[in-house]
Amino acid sequence: MGKYEQLAKDIIKNVGGKENVVSLTHCVTRLRFQLKDESIAKTDVLKNMDGVVTVMQTAGQYQVVIGNHVPDVFKDVCEVAGISGGEATGVKVKMTFAQRALDIISGIFMPSIGILCAAGILKGFNSVMDLLGWIPAAGGLGVLMAAVADAMFFFFPVILGFNSFKKLGGNPFLGMTLGAALCYPTLQGVDIDLFGYVVNATYTSTMLPIVLLAFIAVPLEKFLNKVIPDVIKTFVVPALVLAICFPLGFVVIGPAANALGAMISQFLTSVYGFSPIVAGLLLGFAWQLLVMVGCHVVVILPVMMALMAGEPQPLMSVVAFPSFVQTGAVIAIWLKTKNKKLKDIAFPAWISGIFGVTEPAIYGVTLPAGKQFILTCVGAGIVGGLSVMLGVTSYTMAGLGVFAIPGAINPNDPGKSLMMAVIVAVAAVVIGFVIAYLTYKDTKTPESKEAETTAVKVKKETLVSPLSGKVMELKDVEDAAFSGELLGKGFAIDPTDGEVVAPCDGTVMTLFPTKHAIGIVSDDGAEILIHLGLNTVQLDGKYFTAHVQQGDHVKKGQSLVSVDIDKVKKEGYSMVTPVIITNTKDYLDIVTMKNGEITKKEDALTVLA
Fold first, then answer.
1. How many beta carbons lie within 10 A of that of residue 215, not counting itself?
2. Smallest Cα–Cα separation from 38: which of 19, 20, 24?
């Protein structure tokens, strides 16, 4: 299990448990759940959870936005939920036709986007290295680098075959084989005579043919699995599917798919030809909105198809620059705000934005600021138009953010094309920065207004340690309720003696019959829970002696409970004792005053109200 185990457990719990998960995939920043029943998921809890940026419910998916470390979280979530490869059960979820279509497209293409972007980055890197003369394209290393960069694009039908069959419920390796057959070298661009019908097609670097073929092959495979005896189906079913579907796909489905792709490309070219600048303005403005609802890949898919077919695409460059506008705006807000919490959010958000991951910036900074998000969309529209005006065009799939720039390098004119792409990227950052710096103002909260008026109005209460021992952070306590601060903030003590004293003047509001936990409300209103050990409730009061009763008023340092910690430990229980402020939300801050060893009655915690 990885370092996000607790976050993974909390996510699974709040999406309704692993039994509510039908399937799970992830993209660059999101966990994309398909749930049996979205209504039982605790969306508000997830949105406010540390480690979760926000939650989106769209396209038939329940999307938990994590950030750019989502692959690590995904692994832990799969392990916690017992999901293999993202698929949980065969249960079908009711979705509209549009939702189902978006879900299928996302499931087929999203698993490959990261590697596709990586290959694009390498292609851009190769162009730059060749331009500088450091790694000549004709040299041995240049040839090897070109092979690894081009392989993903050249054999894309193989990868999409795997994804398509897996998403549709077929054998993914059968899909890979069909994809590989479509890429078979001796079939590309040559006349194939089948009973007098001549086909001349090329399927390397294509998307649609294998995807459409999967919609025929998978149902056929499922049907054959039902009617062919188990003893021979393992090899007979794949053989029949390949023998029937590949000729059909090569002769009929493939050409039709290629023609459809050409029509889509021509349509986009026509729209672009009508007014390139308007097309750039509109797509630039809308892109971040599409990112928010999680269907941006679906919208840009026709452009990706044309790019994969070797046709340079100006609109693919347009969608690369909104992240730079967002980044510039967040840098400005980070510099301008006096809100410490917002600064803490904005700093990593603009760092992520540099690399094209803008969800933290959108959900953490500009969207909560209201008009700032709309202004960044306006700025992105302006930059989209500028990109088209300067002729910035994508020649290959590339990465996000700064890694998108190599994709705009024209192999025939690398110097100028690289310069134009850099100019637009810098302009995008500047436009976003200027817009936000001129328009952003901190929102005054009641707490901040009070703090700015006078420091005297801030009430402070100091609590003493109820035990002697070693101070621990709550996150190190081996209990999710305490380590996740679900009950409130505070600290823990690994005690060295068994006398427990009152941390303040107050009233004993709760004394469990098992005496393992005691709740006190201080005279100033702090609600304190002292939980003696972990799971010690199972001792049923053995080894615990109470010196007060529920309802007693106690003085700071007064003895409350005694416990024989040695005997408790011999029973196999931990005596680590969390000291929690259960009404944490009533306070501005809770500060632990001591690290390391501490003695009872020594100042330990300060609460500010």
1. 12
2. 20
Name the β-bridge partners of 562.
499, 545
Q: Which amino acid is at 560?
A: L
Positions annotated as catalytic residues are 27, 531
pLDDT band at 584 (very low <50, low <70, confident <90, very high): confident
Closest by CA to 50, choosing from 3, 11, 80, is 11
Q: Report the C-alpha gap between 44 and 40 in whole angstroms.
A: 11
- Cα torsion 493, 494, 497, 501 to 10°: value is 20
Nearest Cα neighbor of 318 from 275, 276, 261 is 276
Give the Cα separation of 226 and 224 in Å (integer). 5
Tell me the mean pLDDT in the region 433-457: 64
Handedness of CA 486, 487, 489, 493 (dihedral sign): negative
Q: Report yes or no: 68 and 357 within 8 Å, Cβ to Cβ.
A: yes
- For residue 54, what are its two tokens? 């926000």
The continuous run of DSSP H or E covering 55 comes out as strand 54-58
Three-state secondary-structure class, residue 525 = coil
What pLDDT is recorded for position 465? Answer: 94
* Cα–Cα separations (whole angstroms), residue 177 to 171, 172, 224, 242, 257: 10, 9, 18, 8, 19
Residues near 175 by beta carbon (within 8 Å), at least 6 away in sequence: 160, 161, 162, 163, 164, 165, 166, 210, 214, 217
Contacts of 39 (CB under 8 A, 6+ apart): none
pLDDT the model gives residue 98: 65
Among all chains, which residue has been given the structure tokens 């720039």?
405
Query: How far apart are alpha carbons 445 and 339 in whole angstroms?
Result: 10
One-letter amino acid identity for 294?
G
CA 37 to chain centre: 21
Q: Which two tokens stand for residue 359?
A: 């969800």
CB atoms < 10 A from the CB of 544, how many? 22
For residue 420, how far is the Cα from the chain centroid?
Answer: 31
- For residue 359, the model assigns a pLDDT of 64
Judge contact between 31 and 24, C-beta under 8 A. yes
Cross-sheet strand order for the sheet of 544-546: 499-501, 559-563, 544-546
* CA distances, 159 to each of 31, 108, 135, 164, 356 (Å): 21, 9, 29, 9, 24
431 vs 582, more confident: 431
pLDDT at 244: 95
**Helix ranges (DSSP H) in 508-593:** 565-570
Closest CA to 277 of 364, 387, 196: 387
The CA-atom distances, in angstroms, between 597 and each of 501, 566, 573 are 17, 19, 21
How many helices (H) does the chain have, and how many strands (E)? Answer: 21, 20
- Distance in angstroms (rounded) separating the CA atoms of residues 589 and 609: 7
What residues form DSSP beta bridges with 464? 603
Helix (H, G, I), strand (E, B) or coil at 502: coil
For tokens 């549709």, the residue is 168
Reported residue count of the chain is 609
Structural domains of the chain, ranges and CATH numbers in brackets: 5-94 (3.30.1360.60), 155-271 (no CATH), 275-439 (no CATH), 458-608 (2.70.70.10)
What does 250-301 look like in DSSP terms, one character per residue? Answer: IIIIHHHHHHHHHHHHHHHHHHHHH-HHHHHHHHHHHHHHHHHHT-HHHHHH
Indicate the DSSP class of residue 208. H
CA distances from 45 to 41, 50, 183, 231, 503 (A): 9, 10, 48, 50, 31
Q: By three-state DSSP, how is residue 187 classified?
A: helix
Q: Closest Cα to residue 65, out of 46, 85, 81?
A: 46
